[in-house]
Write a structure and sequence with these properties.
two-stranded antiparallel sheet; single chain; 13 helices; 488 residues; alpha/beta; TIM Barrel; disordered N terminus; disordered C terminus
Length: 488
């Protein structure tokens, strides 16, 4: 092979291996919905908004196939339910890595940078059921990555809830929960040795929601009339205070300089009095402005988080509402990829761009039959809302107060759309009827579901995006040149 041909081939390999430009802001892509936008459409949405990082809660094959060649940096997840098996068997860890990482990195071109080992496994409400599995699972998966020659590129992290640490009153007094001190020291040592960040989920909204004494302005970023004074440092928002509580806790176990990434942070748009579009936009835009100015926090001035993953990309109507109705409404986009409010992520677009080519079901809805009275719909209403999402009808929801008959229509339609517009699902013993006139009113949107039997067309080279196609076009011309020169 000639020198010029070798140089061309080296250029090709560099193009295939070079990571995309770093982007500090990413999103959490959850899939607990019966109205799932096809993954290729979601990837196009992410790319249109120049979002370069995405955090998954599992390793869904359809999602990973759509991410192939996209250029996005990806975090996949070992679910809490998988921790015991992976912790107890190196062979199980090998199989997990082979099935969920190696096959995509090696064949599909998915840029997997992180594996999340569990999701908030130390959460207080779990009562320690996953705690003993975390470090053994990390050890086994790390060995599996070594065998697969991926350990230098794919890093292991453990997304932790902020309840893993605490403070009596001031950030500088931050410490890990007593029962977690040993395991957090082991985790920090593991992360430090591998060059991975400590991943934490911070939710000022929950602090406000759970405490009537929490100053509302302290949850946002415009300053507070109730700042927290901690020696020479003054805290004007809960995010900085929480972040530095973790910094202090890490310092007390000898890892005060460990990089920190924010695995989840955001604000819901309904489901509670303090959850609305205005508050969500104010919080998320304030957060983005804070990240973009690289100001850092009092204990880490000039050092912003390693990454910030907004929670979340979409609303997920199948999430548990045990914490509150707001759990289904964290998305910066509605379930179908339509932006809820203007938001500048600092990635080149002044506002969010909507998803395109969403495969909606036909424009028809199920409503309460106006010819029937509502005396016998209570059980039907209960059934519909137990299966579909009616949280927007409750106080703090966008459909609160629309009236009794409209409430019934909303519930009927939610169930009807969840059942993919099956005509039988709109019967309700004659109390429902199908209409082609949109019954939405004001801010209350009666949804039309998504036809998830359809998938968005991918590019003709089979990679799903221009990046991958471009690489293979380059490969073609290199091959043709080498063939012409007699090198192949």
């Amino acid at each position: 092979m000639g020198a010029f041909a070798a140089a061309l081939l080296a250029l090709l390999l560099a193009a295939m291996a070079a990571p995309p430009a770093e982007a500090a802001v990413g999103v959490n892509w959850g899939t607990l919905s019966s109205h799932r936008v096809p993954p290729p459409v979601v990837v196009d949405l992410l790319r249109a908004n120049r979002i370069g990082k995405v955090k998954l809660f599992d390793a869904d094959p359809a999602v990973l196939r759509a991410l192939a060649g996209s250029g996005l940096q990806v975090m996949v997840g070992v679910t809490n339910a998988e921790l015991a098996a992976v912790a107890g068997s190196p062979a199980a860890a090998d199989a997990w890595v082979a099935q969920n990482v190696s096959r995509y990195v090696g064949r599909g071109g998915v840029d997997i940078r992180y594996i999340a080992v569990g999701n908030e496994p130390f959460l207080t409400s779990y009562q320690g059921q996953f705690q003993s599995y975390v470090i053994p699972a990390m050890t086994n998966i790390q060995q599996s990555l070594v065998k697969a020659n991926l350990a230098s590129y794919v890093k292991l992290v453990v997304p932790c809830n902020a309840d893993a640490y605490q403070s009596a009153s001031l950030p500088s007094q931050g410490v890990f929960r007593t029962e977690l001190t040993q395991i957090m020291t082991q985790l920090a040592a593991f992360l430090s040795s591998s060059g991975a960040p400590f991943v934490v989920n911070i939710y000022p909204f929950l602090s406000l929601y759970q405490s009537s004494d929490f100053p509302q302005d302290y949850a946002f970023f415009e300053g507070s009339t109730h700042p927290v004074v901690d020696g020479p440092n003054t805290y004007y928002n809960a995010f900085d205070g929480n972040f530095d509580t973790l910094v202090a806790a890490l310092g007390k176990i000898g890892y005060g300089q460990l990089p920190i990434a924010i695995g989840e942070v955001g604000w819901p748009t309904e489901g509670a009095p303090s959850a609305n579009l205005t508050a969500a936009r104010a919080f998320n835009q304030g957060l983005m402005n804070r990240v973009m100015n690289n100001k850092g926090t009092p204990l880490r001035p000039g050092v912003p988080p390693a990454d910030v993953y907004l929670f979340s990309l979409f609303d997920e109507e199948q999430k548990s509402i045990l914490p509150g109705n707001f759990e289904r409404h964290w998305g910066i986009f509605s379930f179908d990829g339509q932006a809820k409010y203007p938001l500048n992520l600092g990635l080149g677009n002044p506002v969010l761009k909507n998803a395109r080519e969403v495969p909606y079901l036909p424009s028809r809805w199920c409503i309460a039959n106006p010819a029937q009275n509502l005396d016998n719909v209570a059980n039907h209403l209960k059934l519909a809302c137990s299966m579909a999402d009616c949280t927007t009808l409750d106080y703090g929801g966008s459909c609160y107060g629309i009236g009794e008959k409209a409430n019934v229509s909303y519930a009927f339609n939610s169930y009807y759309q969840q059942q993919k517009q099956d005509a039988k699902s709109c019967d309700f013993d004659g109390n429902g009827m199908i209409t082609y006139l949109d019954p939405s009113m004001g801010e209350c949107r009666f949804l039309v579901g998504i036809d998830d039997s359809k998938s968005s067309a991918v590019s003709s080279c089979g990679c799903g995006c221009g990046v991958c196609c471009g690489v293979w076009v380059l490969f073609f011309w290199v091959f043709m040149y080498l063939r012409m020169m007699g090198s192949v």
